[in-house]
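Below is a filled-in request sheet from our internal design queue. Each sheet records the structural input a requester submitted and the sequence that came back. We keep these sheets so that new team members can see what a complete request looks like end to end.

REQUESTER: design group, bay 2
PRIORITY: normal
MODE: inverse folding
CHAIN LENGTH: 244
BACKBONE (tokenized):
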């Protein structure tokens, strides 16, 4: 039977406890069917959702662009209640399941534009010569020294026109709370593994770091050559003085 009000409208928000219980039940049911979900866990109870600077920067980027402040707040509540019961990141795409009041979780898909070749090359060029930062990156940590490079326009963080989304709820034409919850969920995944940032933008992180390191070494060698030229020059001057 159809109902006038959807059971998940703002007129009947499920409580955090209700969401958590339903989310656990959905994960358990999926497990019984042989599907293994990877729920997003959020330790923060208030304030920032993410712990790492890059996770927080992802959320700031989202909040800067999104006009739907109330949806974002509800999304925060959802992710804190453990409602994002599955979230998979692949190249240019995030697929997630979000628990609402109804029994069946909503399916959310977010598509993020892959990084353009010229933008990727520009980021690599700007990372070149920062060997220490690149080593930190290779160890699975986003060095804060590279923050500007990653967060500036054309960096790793997508702009609004590079993001599109859909949700199986009736409210999805706008950014619904389920999509908002998944957006925060992505930030929490980044907290655990910043390389997902590269994956999401269609970049192989090992190749990215490898190319940047190789360019750094080539640049160092080129500079060393210049240095020896200078020594030869100075030598020539001494010789000249000697002659004099
Ligand atoms: Zn939705």
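RETURNED SEQUENCE:
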């Amino acid at each position: 039977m159809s109902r006038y009000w959807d059971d998940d409208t703002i007129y009947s928000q499920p409580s955090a406890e209700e969401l958590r219980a339903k989310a656990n039940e959905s994960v358990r049911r999926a497990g019984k069917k042989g599907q293994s979900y990877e729920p997003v866990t959020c330790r923060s109870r208030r304030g920032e959702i993410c712990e790492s600077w890059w996770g927080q920067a992802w959320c700031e980027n989202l909040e800067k662009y999104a006009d739907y402040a109330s949806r974002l707040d509800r999304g925060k509540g959802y992710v804190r209640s453990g409602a994002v019961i599955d979230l998979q990141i692949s190249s240019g795409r995030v697929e997630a399941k979000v628990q609402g009041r109804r029994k069946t979780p909503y399916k959310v898909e977010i598509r993020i534009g892959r990084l353009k070749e010229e933008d990727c090359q520009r980021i690599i060029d700007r990372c070149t010569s920062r060997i220490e930062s690149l080593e930190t990156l290779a160890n699975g940590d986003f060095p804060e020294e590279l923050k500007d490079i990653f967060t500036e326009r054309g960096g790793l963080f997508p702009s609004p026109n590079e993001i599109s989304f859909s949700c199986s709820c009736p409210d999805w034409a706008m950014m619904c709370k389920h999509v908002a919850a998944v957006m925060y969920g992505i930030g929490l995944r980044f907290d655990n593994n910043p390389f997902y940032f590269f994956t999401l933008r269609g970049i192989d992180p090992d190749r990215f770091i490898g190319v940047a390191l190789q360019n750094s070494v080539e640049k160092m060698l080129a500079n060393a050559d210049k240095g020896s030229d200078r020594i030869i020059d100075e030598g020539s001057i001494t010789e000249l003085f000697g002659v004099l």
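SHEET NOTES:
- The pocket of zinc ion is lined by residues 106, 167, 169, 171-172, 176, 178-179 (CB under 6 Å).
- Residues 1-115+159-203 form one domain.
FILED BY: M.R.
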